[in-house]
Request: fold
Amino acid sequence: MANVLFTNVRILDGTGVAAYPGDVLVQGNRIARISRIGGSPPQSASMSGVTVIDGAGATLMPGLCEAHTHMAWNNSATLDGIQVMPTEEHVLWTAGVARQYLMHGWTSCVGAATAKPRLDVVIRNAIEAGQIPGPRYLAASQEITVPGTLGDETLPHIQYPEYSFGAIVNGPEDMRKVVRMFLKYGVDSIKLNLSGDNFVMGADAKTTWMSDEEVAMAVRETKMRGKRVSVHARSCESVKQALRHGCEVIYHASFTDEEALDMLEAQKDRIFVAPGLSVIIKLLYEGEPFGIDHAKAVKMGYQEELDAAVQSLRAMHKRGVRVLPGGDYGFAWAPHGTNAMDLQYFVKYLGMTPMETIVAATKFGGQMMKMGDELGTIREGMLADLLLVDGDPLADLGLLLDTKRLLAIMKDGRFYKEPPIRSSQPRTLSRWTAGVAAS
Reply:
């Protein structure tokens, strides 16, 4: 980490304020000073040894937060294909995905479930120790499920280890045992599969499988240790169940009614919703290479779910519920690295503006990372997680899919992608000593 001055940049600060031309000074791992071009100059003093980055009009914005991350998913077309990957190869794969996310501008990621009990924890710890490059990461447990629904990949004629793709429980005491195990391993969140999924025969997205007693046990054990519960909840009843029991992160929330929407709105300052639209959209319109043509996807219920999800999520956004992009990337039809498609989906399907989408991926992301006072916006004193983008993301969100347009990637004040033009000449900058912040 060093002193870095971004000059001649267009600052998109993540707060929803219109972008403005200015300069940003980073000292160590913090944003030290922000100045609007044409604003009042700071009081005079000196500071030397600054690396100057001439942005040439490029956009400087906060790093993105992926709200529904499965780093261990290996771009398979099936859950079984993820499950059977040997542990050694799986660790190496997941470490590579961590680097891939960072180099695509995702400087923070919220784990939504992992494929083996300690895999997310090991990757998070390695990132924090500097052993591998990767985003700030909140590690998740495996998916906890019940027999016969999403995550139960066991077969009667093959004896899998105790914990297969999902950790399967029967009753509250089973739940207590599994949750305590994951918490012992050091996860940041426990993941529960409350609803079914159209991908599972006989347990579609409108079904709800986990008992209230099981959910209550999981939440009680998790909160006792100060951790968070996230849920796979596509059905209307599972959304209500999650809210009744105090779960904080709701993935999908495709089906709702007025009661569910009222409950979501009443808890909007406590919860986060990350729909993960990629699975539905990709299988409806691009699933044929994977054996699911449009007619089959409709028959499986994906058109019905997309229509319901659009209606539900638009209503949530209107009511002020924090809806964040990201989710379920790491399947064959939505491989890692294409996550920024969600930003375009939010505009196309949910009616959000590009600015609202950027705020959801930055400011709300900092809040979901439990670092809202330090992360997700460009303000003085905030942590320096920054992207320098060639062009205007508000005019074309597709820019954030193109790594060539990400001119520089900084996390915690350190460049992980060096900007193409820079001057490392020691320089005295008298105008950067007293506090002038962007107003």
